[in-house]
């Protein structure tokens, strides 16, 4: 059986970072764990179900005093089986805006 060909626009970089996210209505951010990141989107695990089409503000702290805040749209959200802490896997696409400043994956994401 052949592997499914990669259909993403840009390369993904594996990592494990805590991110903060919310929308314009949430007074405090929610926390999640991001597992991979690219120039066009990311995957993270969340305790909360998010609906496709929802718009979020995500802050990515890479622990080197670099803070990237991006706007994103939820593309999909799937329930994670047999998980006690994070119940949903979420895929988001970064939205193009003046605030995103062309997010690039930092060099440390190239380490595997």
Summarize the structure.
By secondary structure, the chain is mainly beta. It has no helices and 6 strands.
The number of distinct structural domains comes to 1
The number of E-state strands comes to: 6
Strand order of the largest sheet: 1-2-3-6-5-4
Number of helices: 0
Largest sheet: 6 strands, antiparallel, barrel
Instruction: Give the oligomeric state.
Output: single chain
Strand content: over 45%
Describe this structure in words.
The protein is mostly beta strands and 112 residues long. The protein has a single domain (13-98), classed as Thrombin, subunit H (Beta Barrel), CATH 2.40.10. Helices cover 0% and strands 46% of the residues. The chain contains no helices and six strands. Strands 1-2-3-6-5-4 form a six-stranded antiparallel beta barrel. A hairpin with a 3-residue loop joins strand 2 and strand 3. Residues 98-112 have low confidence and may be disordered.
Relevant terms:
Thrombin, subunit H, 6-stranded antiparallel barrel, mainly beta, disordered C terminus, 112 residues, globular
Layout of SSEs?
Layout: E1 13-22, E2 30-37, E3 41-46, E4 55-61, E5 67-79, E6 88-94
């Amino acid at each position: 059986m052949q592997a499914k060909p990669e259909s993403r626009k840009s390369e993904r970089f594996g990592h494990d970072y805590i991110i903060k996210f919310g929308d314009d209505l949430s007074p405090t951010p929610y926390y999640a764990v991001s597992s991979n990141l690219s120039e066009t989107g990311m995957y993270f695990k969340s305790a909360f179900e998010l609906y496709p089409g929802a718009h979020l503000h995500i802050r990515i702290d890479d622990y080197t005093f670099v803070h990237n805040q991006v706007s994103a749209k939820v593309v999909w959200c799937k329930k994670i089986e047999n998980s006690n802490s994070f119940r949903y896997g979420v895929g988001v696409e970064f939205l193009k805006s003046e605030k995103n400043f062309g997010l690039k994956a930092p060099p440390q994401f190239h380490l595997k």
